[in-house]
Give the backbone structure.
Amino acid sequence: MAPRLLIVLAVFLVTAAPARADLVQLDRAQAGKGARLARAAGGSELAHDLLIWRVPSSAVTDLRRAGIVRISRPERLLRTTASSLQLATDPLVPFEWWRAAVGADQVDSPGPGKPVTVVDSGVDLNHPEFVTRANTTALNAQTTTDADEDHGTAVASVVGATNNGVGIVGIYPDAVLRVWDASPFGFLNEGAAIEGIYEAARRGVGVINLSFGGEDDDPLLDDSIRFAFRSGSLVVAAAGNEALDGNPPNFPAFYPHVLTVGATTESNNVAIFSTLSPTVDMAAPGVHIPVAETLKEEPTGYSTTGSGTSFASPLVAGAAAWVWTTRPDLDNTQLFELMRRSATDIAARGFDNASGYGLLNIPGALNFRTPTSDPQEPNEKPREIEARGLFTTATPPLTTAGHTASSITARVDRSEDPIDLYRAWAPAGHTLRAQVTGSVRVRVLERTTRLQPLATGKRGVAAYRNPGKGAYVYVEVRPAVRVAEYRLRVTAVRR
């Protein structure tokens, strides 16, 4: 079979899964009752902590009447598309031009460390790159029988194909590689992808690669990513291949807290198809990438012409796990910032919508200064910081009735982290002062509606005098520039 040019990125379909199922997120206040009713209706739990279930579509109306449903939406399929458009010694390594472009040929990659989970179509575990590969775990059954199920094998090989004298070598050949098959119906499936992200995060801190996307904003997919980020993992996603089609928003790449990757060519220019967006964080090679193919689709097991942001993304995911293994003291917020800030600027100076902060630079990332940690993320919405919201536990308030002064150092970003929201105790008859340093704006908001600010910052200080009973309020910080580090100090004084 002639090598194929893979123009990646899965796209959401509006057709329902063969079983006609809905994805349902239960109301947390009715979690116990909801789980019983969902199970009785023939549902299956996908993400326990997020209360996300797959239930027969015919049961949703009754579940809504029972008052247990927060969100429901028909489950959709995802589809990948194909178009004709130590010293690494494996035979196809001379075709791996990307190695020099990102500095992978300048430093030795480490042994096993931080895991990389590929959530994609199934991986051909009988392929020479995987059949005897150490530290390879299938988190669920892997199927590669459908014609469109070669995508996961290709993506996983870019991350961790071993240096075994056969075929290609991945960017982190000794990585702890975990694979989740999100194509139970022969196509990438929305519910299965959410389940895979959740399972990867539940198993512990690591890097999660998502080489799929589409134009539909899915709040349940967003919730699963926020859960993974809160759990300490780094989520990496392909920017999309829609530059020639108007650059529509692409999800999950468009979500906050996702390290979004565009594609570059052999000349270190942004590929003509790579989606332009203010959410692009960095770029990596994504044209003419040698990849492993399922043996069913390609008897030789390899193609040298894989192209698309789907292959740029796993290069960054594998590199991030490499850096994290070498620098294990980093948390995921520091790793996120380090990977993009250490990139080699290749377009307009500084940030641009095509390449983000620049081209992946592994030696640069290994030696880049440690960024400031960004605590309590994600914390853009009340349900992310309150008890019984999105997460099972609340973030601690900055001040309480018995502790009326506190400070925190953090970071905001217009695309990746547009709001930081904190709870603070406003004692009766006291003035709550929220003072910031840095290029940010601060407000004090009423906790219930947040419609009208109680106080708006002037010269970096928002002061609210509470004339009524003591109560918690929100302190909101937003960036005044693209990215800003700040220090917030909250105090309550009687005056």
